[in-house]
Design goal:
Layout: H1 3-12, H2 23-54, H3 62-82, H4 86-108, H5 123-146, H6 162-167
Length: about 170
């Protein structure tokens, strides 16, 4: 066989070492999910800030909590973007679940002497957005924990590079 024919046949053959399937795809999916989670958290923060500005600030106890909820939503959105660790996802999911729980309590029996109505502005939207956000954050947190990060080399031993492994 001539050299060009051998080269063409080698290109058709499978690689000697199989690559990890879906490794790049999982990372991209986790990135998109993280961006979506951050956007949903910011949206929750915006809704609470909007409601606080529209009059919820005059409700005793609940008013300051709406402002706190808005600030926490924006901070956690930034944290999920800037610090993509499972702990950020757990904290954000806990925040969102507690916000959803407070809304459900306020709708059913009342919270701090205030009972919310299902027909009030942003109630139905908040129920949907907060439920989706909790599920998305749990999914992203599990993905973030499953994707291995860069691990530092052990002390006293040089990092094991691919070139070093090829010589063994």
């Amino acid at each position: 066989m001539t050299r060009p024919t051998t080269f063409r046949l080698r290109r058709l053959a499978p690689p000697r070492r199989p690559t990890a399937p879906g490794r790049g795809g999982r990372w991209a999916a986790a990135l998109l999910l993280r961006l979506g989670c951050a956007a949903l958290l910011a949206w929750i923060g915006y809704i609470h800030l909007h409601l606080w500005l529209e009059g919820y600030r005059h409700i005793p106890t609940n008013g300051p909590l709406f402002l706190l909820d808005a600030v926490a939503g924006f901070i956690l959105a930034a944290a999920v973007l800037a610090w993509p660790r499972p702990l950020a996802g757990v904290l954000a999911a806990g925040y969102t679940a507690s916000t959803l729980g407070a809304l459900l309590i306020s709708l059913s029996v009342g919270l701090f002497g205030f009972r919310e109505s299902i027909s009030a502005s942003y109630v139905v939207e908040s129920l949907a957005i907060e439920t989706i956000t909790v599920l998305a954050l749990i999914t992203w947190t599990i993905q973030a924990a499953a994707i291995p990060g860069r691990q530092p080399a052990a002390r006293g031993r040089p990092a094991d590079s691919s070139a070093h492994r090829a010589r063994r």
